[in-house]
Amino acid sequence: MQRYYQKDIETMPQERLRELQSQKLVKQVRHVYEHVPYYRDLMEKKGVTPDEIRGVDDLYKLPFLSKNDLRETYPYGMLAVPLSDCVRIQSTSGTTGKRVIAYYTQHDIDLWEECCARAIMAAGGTRDDVVQVCYGYGLFTGGPGLNGGSHKVGSLTLPMSSGNTERQIQFMMDLKATILCCTPSYAAYIGESLKERGYKPEDNCLKAGIFGAEPWTEEMRHDIEASLGIKAYDIYGLTETSGPGVSFECEEQKGMHINEDHFLAEIIDPDTGEVLPEGSRGELVFTSLDKEAFPLLRYRTRDICVLTRKKCSCGRTHVRMSKPMGRSDDMLIIRGVNVFPSQIETVLLNEGYAPNYRIEVDRANNSDTLDVYVELVPEQFSDTVSGVTAREKALAGAIKTMLGINPAVHLVAPKTIERSEGKAVRVIDKRKLHD
Ligand code: ADP
Ligand code: ZN
Asked: Are 307 and 320 in contact (CB under 8 A)?
């Protein structure tokens, strides 16, 4: 099976890839310097001129950009071409504050859709596939990105958008969808809804799913794979760099290949800004290499992960990133301990619960409190009160072993925690309300 969309680029030897990146970087830096006064000022403040950027090795000389810079320059301050050259805007989902707007020329749209096409083909997609896209359409990049990628592959595209689960299931069955694209939390919900309607995993025609836009654990992957009878692939991206497809998983499912001919990746220490060597855990930073309208140099994603250049059996040479554990600003500090919601998810699924949970953090008597609400799975629901209390104690013990802090676990009735059709909101930090 042909598993590449652009084989020459996806399997290019690393030295040649680096040369290509260097050539593109020199041009991209000049483009930004000449057309984005805001970034030119940052470069001047740092005392660096475009002449000093001769290749990838000079990247460290450039100043960083953060989401705050994008908010400050809202709405047009980062635009590097005349507005009349742009054909589209998209916007972040605003998970962590004011929305950011990204602009695209037709060239930028093509580049982005090609990245998504690579992801779909890596998941086994061909022109004979039926791709059901139930990421949101509109300002959110998920729907438009995968939609465009699916067109480029030549698959039949079902532009479902998110929500209306009844209709999703009807189309999935009637039109024999083979590849499902949505957030992992929505995939889990679709799996649960199919089961409720009496469908078994083998009753659908799905073979693969391409799930991203939010953090999800390996345990959640296994759950979704079992409930839908598919192979579940991760896809990553952010509006600022274009959207989903910045990186994607191949059949190895061991990290996501970053489309390095378009995006240069670095890992830095989030506190000091120091560039860290391959294999270190830190904040992911991206530099676009050939974007026209909204090129960003050294953009800090706040996503925490690890990069590896180890050879991959799929033949792709592009660097791989580990699943982001979450963003640095998703990390909770509870009684001085760093906690990622994904760690709690791992424990819940390992202990046999479904990924329906809510984490509440608060402060009482000058001490942080951690409450974890988890749904009982239907088979456990008939348990006696003492049975449930014993389960709560056991789960609290397992979480304590993972995190080192004691949570209060509350097992609640099935279907009482709200399901997500887009990005799931799992954490409520009530401490912020008191500040
Ligand atoms: P917002 O920042 O408002 O959520 P986006 O919709 O652009 O805006 O979301 C991009 C962010 O979503 C990324 O920075 C990352 O934190 C998260 N994300 C996207 N894909 C994944 C993934 N596969 N795994 C974990 N997190 C992801
Ligand atoms: Zn691979």
From this structure: yes
Give pTM, 2 decimals: 0.93
Please tell me the distance from the alpha carbon of residue 282 to that of residue 304, in angstroms, as a whole number: 5
The helix (run of H) or strand (run of E) holding residue 107 is: helix 106-122
Residue 301 in contact with ligand 1 by CB distance below 6 A: yes
Q: Please state, in angstroms and rounded to a whole number, the distance separating the CA atoms of residues 91 and 131.
A: 24
Please choose, from the candidates 156, 154, 170, 163, the residue with its C-alpha nearest in 3D space to the C-alpha of residue 134: 163
For 95-125, b where at least 16 C-beta lie within 10 A, e where not — what string? eeeeebbbbbbeebbebbbbbbbbbbbbbbb
168-205 pLDDT, tens digit each: 999 999 999 999 999 999 999 999 999 999 999 999 99
Ligand having the closest approach to the CA of 309: 2
Could you tell me where the beta strands, DSSP code E, fall in 199-350? Answer: 208-212, 231-238, 243-249, 256-258, 263-268, 281-288, 299-308, 320-321, 332-334, 337-339
**Residue 16 belongs to what H/E stretch?**
helix 14-35
Contact 421, 189 (CB under 8 A): yes
Least confident piece of the model among 44-53, 249-258, 259-268, 362-371: 362-371
Q: How many CB atoms lie within 10 A of CB 23?
A: 14
For residues 66 and 296, give the distance between their C-alpha atoms in angstroms, rounded to a whole number: 10
* φ, ψ for residue 312, nearest 5 deg: -110, 140
Q: Domains in the chain, please, with CATH?
A: 1-327 (3.40.50.12780), 332-429 (3.30.300.30)
Decide whether any atom of ligand 1 lies within 6 Å of the 217 Cβ. no
132: exposed, middle or buried (C-beta count within 10 Å: 0-12, 13-18, 19+)?
buried
Distance between Cα 243 and ligand 2 center (Å): 21
Atom 24 of ligand 1, residue of closest alpha carbon: 215
List the structure tokens of 162.
Answer: 């998110």
Q: Which ligand is nearest to the CA of 101?
A: 1
One-letter amino acid for residue 316 of the chain: R
